[in-house]
Amino acid sequence: MTAAPVTADTSSDLPPGYDPALYNADLAPVPAARRDWSWVNMATVWMGMVHNIVVYEAASGLMALGFSAWECLEIVAVAYAVLFVAMWFNARAGTKYGIPFCVLIRSAFGPYGAQIPVVLRGFCAVFWFSVQAYAAAQAVDAVMSTLSGAWAGMTASFLGMQARTWVAMAIVWALHAWIVSHGVHRIRNFELVAGPLVIVVGLLATIWGLHVGHGLGPLFAQPSRLHGMAFWSTFAMGVTGMIGLWATFAVNIPDLSRFVKSERDQVVGQAIGLPVTALVFTPMGIITTSATIILFGHPIWNPVDLLLALNYPVVTILGGATLVLATLSVNVVANIMPASYDLVNLMPRRLDFHRAARLVLVLGVFFMPWLWFNQADSIYRVLDLIGGMLGPVTGIMLADFYVVRKQALDVAALYRLDGRYAGRKGWNPPALVAFAAGGGLASIGHVVPGLEGLNAVSWFIGVAIGGGVYLALSRRQGQDMWNGADDTASLPSTAS
Q: How does it sit in the membrane (predicted)?
């Protein structure tokens, strides 16, 4: 079932009483009849996101800390179980009311205050899109350079990057544009194919690794180098680091769950697509890398480097195409889609989903990822700080929906500047204070010497402090919010 693409909203489509600064067709609740994603769609979307280059290489980071391969799998299991629970509960409002993150967050922060977490999430999304897309461009460049001497000869440089890499970037950017050109329904259909296909290719690579290694390989035989308290503190840091890969998506999971048929489809789809896929994909990476130790004498965790080292044209083409497909699969859902909704939320009268998606592609170029790509420490330090600020947002959203609102929202009021969620002139002080307190404590270990140990549990600190402070201040403020709202409030007739 494929729905017609949504066009930009006009003033005549504005439901009575709604503010045009807070509403357009893409931000409107999705009616029940249009929520046509099943658990299969939700699972394949997550499959497409979980098996990407960053997650593939994450196992190398854990093993570099001293963990054994089996302990890496334990860390992955714990981290993704926590993520699954957080996303399960945070996705419920999207499934129930059909509203995206940037609208749902107004309930806690107010219509103007909500722009702070929305802008932070949008910044992370555009930045990650830029970096991931550039990684795919490098894969295209490596494959084409191997297969074509003419391509490899394009060595002229412009703005610090070779001409052939510019062409590779143009190809990758054009592929992203094609996938998002018909909105979320094309994204759903693309993930239905891309997610399982990448898993199939990963299984083929795993079979190759088992053949070369005559079993699980040397990495699975490597013992742990961590014991006692050193083990547990590093284990906590590893879990937090794995959660950090998806902490930003934990806040905007309603962007996906708003299209799902039922709560059961949402839960089953996420359970299969998130923790189960992660536990399947991680050993694939370890087994494949074990084979590289036998073949080359050292581990090769970067898939592009592995393709070049193997130097088989057929394998290079297949592997390179799979890397590009995997990057497209994660980028369109985890980065372009939320960033587009965030931009629409900032300018609902000027942007729709399609225009915003094109703007994300343009902004991605201006982030100049080729200048950042080889400075991983700087990238992750900045993004860790921003991601640490989004932990409290998760806590505040959960506290607001489940405790303060008792899972009942007045949907129409979310689109009004003077509604029950307006706070003080569009700003809700309890959420803002909780956001600052949780974000500050979650990130303090990055800037204050002696408190680095807090980084091991920064996301958990952010969620707990953000949610706890928000509840305390909301109760003290004695707002009408504690009475809940009528969840049968009228929904606008305009479909998203």
A: Multi-pass membrane protein
Residues 148-165: tens digit of each pLDDT: 888 878 878 787 788 898
Give the total residue count for the chain. 496
Does domain 35-374 sit in CATH 1.10.12.10?
A: no
This prediction has a pTM of 0.84
Q: How far apart, in whole angstroms, are the C-alpha atoms of residue 152 and residue 154?
A: 6
pLDDT per residue as tens digits for the range 391-424: 999 999 999 999 999 999 999 999 999 888 998 8
The residue among 352, 371, 368, 364 whose CA lies nearest residue 174 is 364
Phi and psi at residue 267, in whole multiples of 5°? -70, -50
Residue 86, classified by CB atoms within 10 Å of its CB into exposed (0-12), middle (13-18) or buried (19+), is buried
How many Cα neighbours within 13 Å face the side chain of 42?
A: 31
Q: DSSP string spanning 7-37? A: PPP-GGGPPTT--TTS--TTTSPPPGGG--B
**How would you class 373 by CB atoms within 10 Å of its CB: exposed for 0-12, middle for 13-18, buried for 19 or more?**
middle
Torsion (CA) 400, 401, 407, 410 in degrees, nearest 10? 80
What phi, psi does 68 have (nearest 5°)? -80, 170
**Residues near 163 by beta carbon (within 8 Å), at least 6 away in sequence:** 154, 155, 156, 157
Neighbouring C-beta atoms of residue 476, cutoff 10 Å: 9
CA distances from 335 to 124, 176, 331, 402 (A): 8, 11, 5, 27
